[in-house]
Amino acid sequence: MNFAIVEDSRSQAEVLKALLKSEGYQVEVFAEGQALVDALATHTFDFFVVDWTLPDIGGDEVLKAIRARCGWDVPVVFCTARTDEEDAADILRLGADDYIPKPIRYMEFMARIQAILRRRKPVAPAQIRVGGIELDPSGRRVTLAGQEIDLTQREFDLAVVFLQNVGRVLGRDELLSTVWAREADVDTRTVDTHTSRLRKKLGLAGESGLMLTSVYGQGYRLDTVKA
Q1: 203: how many CB neighbours lie within 10 A of its CB?
Q2: For residue 212, which phi and psi values (nearest 5 degrees)?
Q3: pLDDT value, residue 182
């Protein structure tokens, strides 16, 4: 699970990052709200922890951008020194899942994060059908034109990410953190190697009705084409 922390206090951000990483989560820190908003175009996050008062844009603007890009299923928690009843009500009405008063009590912080995650019941992933490819995330099976294709675990995970993001540029670092999140000894060359194998196995040079191309200096993009 990938967390985004938006916090202009470096020391505060590092403590929160360490707490979350100790639970096995991936964490990216942003010192300004606009930096997070810009990152939403190319990165995928599963949980947002946001300081309400930021040096550039307001927490309400950050929240609107998150909801517009990521929808309402992604948890957003605000950390704020504004704790009177009216401010707390405003934060929740705008679409936050919870708020944590500053100064942050770290045991309470982790308990609130875990409580929100418990309430988010996992939904069985739906089958994905794009072009001539059908992919079943639950059964971890993929077929091309009705024929089952044998993929390694990482190739399958990579295929899921690409097929869920048709038309969107996915950076190598994003793919690395999503598919190889818990492996410290891999680099972006691993992404290139697995992408090349996946392109051949699933006919992603156009044969399947999909074209996987390299976007110079950015990453990869999967597009639909006429087979």
Answers
A1: 20
A2: -100, 115
A3: 57
